[in-house]
Write a structure and sequence with these properties.
Structural class: alpha/beta
Oligomer: single chain
Largest sheet: 4 strands, mixed
Strand content: 25-35%
Number of domains: 1
């Protein structure tokens, strides 16, 4: 499994969520350079539940693009409350440079803007539901139940059927 980077900052703008992940600067720089040259770089993403040590869980946004290594951004249990805002705002912007936080100038080539970032959260709901039921009554299960409650506000109920 690839390394998972945690956000330094999670914020909200009129247009969407902003995730600042300085640890991914080297990994995303080649992609940003391609954007700067005007390339239309195909990319894709998935939301995943990752089991860590001691039955702790992360929600990971796994990002991949044509010709790149891909990266993963992890959201700890303390960060899960932002997931409904991803649905509400629909756009998620990943940046690696602190100088862009709060920036109003258009520096879109220095950011990965993901429209409809909520796509795939319905699959995450299913993944959480399928975690070992023997955890019933344990702290990890309570954590996952909380995640399911949070995700309930993120997906269209029709998509779960």
């Amino acid at each position: 499994m690839r390394e998972i980077a945690l956000p330094d900052f999670i914020g909200e703008s009129e247009k969407g969520m902003i995730v600042m992940v300085s640890a991914l600067e080297d990994e995303l720089e080649p992609l940003f350079r391609r954007f700067h040259r005007g390339e239309k770089v195909p990319y894709w993403f998935d939301w995943e539940l990752i089991e860590m040590e001691n039955r702790r869980y992360l929600v990971a946004l796994d990002l991949n693009w044509e010709g790149g290594q891909g990266v993963a951004i992890g959201f700890t249990a303390e960060m899960w409350e932002v997931l409904p805002t991803v649905r509400e705002k629909e756009q998620l912007t990943v940046i690696t440079d602190w100088s862009l936080v709060g920036e109003t100038r258009n520096q879109s080539w220095r950011a990965l803007v993901i429209p409809d970032a909520h796509r795939g959260l319905d699959l995450l709901v299913r993944q959480v539901a399928q975690v070992d039921l023997s955890l019933q009554g344990t702290r990890p299960r309570q954590e996952l139940d909380r995640l399911q409650e949070i995700l309930a506000g993120c997906v269209d109920p029709v998509a779960l059927n």
